[in-house]
Amino acid sequence: MKLLDALKWRYAAKKMNGQVVPQQKIDYILEAARLAPSSSGLQPYKIFVITNKELQEKIKTVGFEQSQIVDASHVLVFAAWDGYSLEKISEVFARTTQERGIPSTAMDEYKERLWGMYKDLGQEWHANHAAKQAYISFGLAIAAAAEQEVDATPMEGFIPSEVDKLLSLNELGLKSVLVLPLGYRDASNDWLVNLKKVRTPQNEFITEIK
């Protein structure tokens, strides 16, 4: 399915039927998320893939009882770094230089300049900035799911601190940001499935400056 057609097809499914998504499709979606761009290539987030039904039930409890969380095949939790540090940035750049086969010191000047900009901005700014990078990956995961004709329901409606506890994210220096159930729509029970997709008209949405 072409991307624009896929995006016209997709919607935020309100009911899912419990059918399992083939692993090949899940892998495709996750790879699209992994390949997403991020500021300075830091990828300051991770994705947790949850198929354990007991854990999905617990997330549903702190996710305002949204049924898609348990009726989905897989639930993705996007968790961002709770803050930047010179050590974390150094680890990313060390991997980059190694993978590119360039001297380990090749990015030192950029690394020091980047940390110099970040270090005094405070942990709240750090966490918000990292979360913004996770949103980019999240968006690509949604688009990839649509391309695979897999339904995805973007969710910010959950209690992050409780999801953090369930996944022991604090110990990993992470904070949950977004939840994305993946599965297949239950068309016979979903009130939204046949409603027209409504978006801002192009002439209002886009401003051309020449």
TrEMBL record:
Asked whether the UniProt record includes Flavoprotein among its keywords, one would answer yes
Q: Which UniProt keywords apply?
A: Flavoprotein, FMN, Oxidoreductase
Fetch the InterPro entries from UniProt. Answer: Nitroreductase (IPR029479), Nitroreductase-like (IPR000415)
The cofactors named for this UniProt entry are:
FMN
Which Gene3D superfamilies has this protein been placed in? NADH Oxidase
Going by the entry's taxonomy, the superkingdom of the source organism is recorded as Bacteria
Location of the Nitroreductase domain:
7-184
Name the PANTHER family on file. NAD(P)H NITROREDUCTASE YDGI-RELATED, NITROREDUCTASE
Entry's family note: Belongs to the nitroreductase family.
Protein name according to UniProt: NAD(P)H-dependent oxidoreductase
Its source organism is Flavobacterium ginsengiterrae
List the top taxonomic levels of the source.
Answer: Bacteria, Pseudomonadati, Bacteroidota, Flavobacteriia, Flavobacteriales
